[in-house]
Design goal:
Low-confidence stretches: 97-105
Structural class: mainly alpha
Oligomer: single chain
Number of helices: 9
Radius of gyration: 18 Å
Number of strands: 0
Shape: globular
Distance between the termini: 32 Å
Number of domains: 1
Largest sheet: none
Length: about 210
C-alpha cells in the first residue's frame, strides 16, 4: 500500500465511521446517558469486529458472503433484536443522582460493553459491503502482503476511534444540558428510542 493509498483509505474509513447507522446510534445513545468515557469499550468492540471483516475481505469475504448469505441474515436479525432489547432497557432505566453522573464500569460491565459493540458491528451488513466494495480501490488484493493487512488494520483502528469517540464527545456535551431527573428521564427515553430505531434500521436493511 502506497502512502497516497494509505491516506485515502484512512480518510474513507473515517468518513465511514461517522456515517449514520446502528453503531453511531448506539454510541449516541450510550454517550447521552452515561457520558463519552462509557463508550470506549463499546467503540473498541465495534472496531474489533470491523477489523475482522477487513481481514476476511482481504482473504475473500465476497465468496464467503455469496455461499453463506443465510448466516449473515440470521446475524443481522439477532443484532436487530438485541438493539431493541437495549432500547427497552434504556427507556425503562431508573433515574437517580448517581445516574446523572458518569458511572464507573465494572470488569464484567466492560466485557459486556465490548461484546455489545462487537455484536452491533458484526450484525451490520453495511460493514461487510464497505470492505468488499472499497478495498480493491485502495490496494491490489492479488499481491496483498501480510504487512499491507496489518497497516490497513491499524489505519482502521485509528480512524474509527477518532470518528466514533468524536461523536461520543459531542453527545456527552449535549448531555450536560440535562441535569434534572425529569430531563434525564426524557433523555433516557430519547436514547432508548434511538437504540430501538437502530434495531429497526438494521432489521429492515437488505
Amino acid at each position: 500500500m502506497t502512502v497516497e493509498s494509505a491516506l485515502s483509505f484512512f480518510l474513507a474509513v473515517l468518513v465511514f465511521g461517522i456515517t449514520p447507522g446502528p453503531g453511531v446510534f448506539a454510541i449516541l445513545a450510550r454517550a447521552l446517558v452515561n457520558g463519552a468515557g462509557s463508550c470506549t469499550l463499546l467503540a473498541l468492540g465495534m472496531i474489533f469486529s470491523d477489523i475482522l471483516y477487513l481481514i476476511a475481505a482481504c482473504l475473500g469475504l465476497a465468496a464467503i458472503a455469496t455461499h453463506w448469505s443465510e448466516l449473515f441474515t440470521a446475524i443481522r436479525i439477532i443484532g436487530a433484536a438485541y438493539l431493541f432489547y437495549l432500547g427497552y432497557k434504556m427507556w425503562t432505566a431508573p433515574v437517580s443522582a448517581e445516574a446523572m453522573s458518569d458511572s464507573k464500569i465494572s470488569r464484567s460491565g466492560m466485557a459486556t460493553s465490548f461484546l455489545q459493540g462487537f455484536l452491533i458491528s458484526a450484525s451490520n451488513p453495511k460493514v461487510i459491503l464497505f470492505y468488499i466494495a472499497f478495498l480493491p480501490t485502495f490496494m491490489d488484493l492479488s499481491i496483498l502482503t501480510a504487512s499491507d493487512i496489518v497497516l490497513a488494520s491499524v489505519l482502521t483502528l485509528v480512524a474509527l476511534m477518532i470518528g466514533i469517540m468524536s461523536i461520543a464527545a459531542f453527545a456527552a456535551k449535549a448531555r450536560g444540558l440535562f441535569r434534572s431527573e425529569r430531563a434525564m428521564k426524557r433523555l433516557n427515553r430519547s436514547a432508548g428510542s434511538i437504540m430501538a430505531g437502530a434495531g429497526a434500521y438494521l432489521a429492515l436493511r437488505q
